[in-house]
Amino acid sequence: MYYGTNSVCKVCPLRAECLPEKTPAKRLWRWEHEALITQHRTKMQSLKARTMIKQRAALAEHPFDTIKQKLGWSHFLMRGKTKVAGENALIMLTYNFRRLLNLIGISLFQKLIRANKSGNIESIKQEIAEYIAVLYFIRAFFRQKVNLSI
User: Fold this and answer.
1) pLDDT per position in the chain (150 positions), as tens?
2) Residue 19 domain flag
3) What domain count does the chain have?
4) Quick check: 18 and 26 in contact, CB under 8 A?
5) What is residue 51's DSSP assignment?
6) Which residue range(s) make up the domain with 135?
7) Within-domain flag for 36
8) Taking the CA of residue 27 as centre, how many other CA atoms within 13 Å lie in the half-sphere pointing to its CB?
9) Whole-model pTM over 0.70
10) Is residue 65 part of a domain?
């Protein structure tokens, strides 16, 4: 931390460019590792970094928006790191469970529950495998760059 003195700042020729009229002296705060921050900011200005940020926004930020908007969650109700971590785990469980139901549907989920309860999970394995294969196919299809021009 740097504090300029009133007497030094009064006679400085750059005072008008440096300080507002009513401010008596200059104060500067710099972290001891400020060079790391400057280096990081410079690195983040590159085209590669901007592309990565856009990709993160598209992939990683979506769940949090969904959680806030659709689940009606906007802030933690608990205090303390341990309690907040527990609350966050419940929120993420709810989000993932909701995604699971959207992906496999309620009827297949009910079949899974019944099969698990009866201990006869083997009876539904084929249906689950077929469903997962379809999901992987759809995922692969949408990830490839398709040229539809004829």
Assistant:
1) 777 888 888 888 888 888 888 888 888 788 888 899 999 999 999 999 988 888 887 777 777 777 877 777 778 888 999 999 998 888 888 888 888 888 778 888 888 888 878 877 777 777 788 877 877 777 777 776 555 555
2) no
3) 1
4) yes
5) H
6) 75-150
7) no
8) 2
9) no
10) no
